[in-house]
Specification:
The protein has three helices and no strands. It has 89 residues and is an all-alpha fold.
């Protein structure tokens, strides 16, 4: 396996990992923005008010998107392993 093939595999793995983490990251960013805005408007600076909503939203988004993430990860793994013969010779 040459360096170009290794780079291509790593590129595909990184793209897949970014796609899988995207829903949770977007939800966390939106919740953080809303909570930060509310804290600024109300002048309440409690740390638990920022942490708890983010954890709850990440848990909910993870449970909702889990079937899609598993399907996508299994499909990627199967494609990678079925094309592995190209990288050996």
């Amino acid at each position: 396996m040459g360096p170009d093939q290794t780079v291509e595999i790593l590129r595909r793995v990184l793209m897949e990992s970014m796609l899988l983490s995207l829903p949770m990251l977007l939800a966390t960013c939106v919740v953080s923005l809303v909570v930060s805005l509310l804290q600024t408007l109300t002048s309440v600076q409690e740390q638990t008010l920022t942490t708890v909503p983010r954890l709850v939203v990440v848990f909910i988004v993870a449970m909702v998107t889990l079937p899609w993430m598993v399907h996508r990860a299994v499909g990627f793994t199967l494609r990678l392993l079925s094309d592995f013969h190209r990288y050996l010779g």
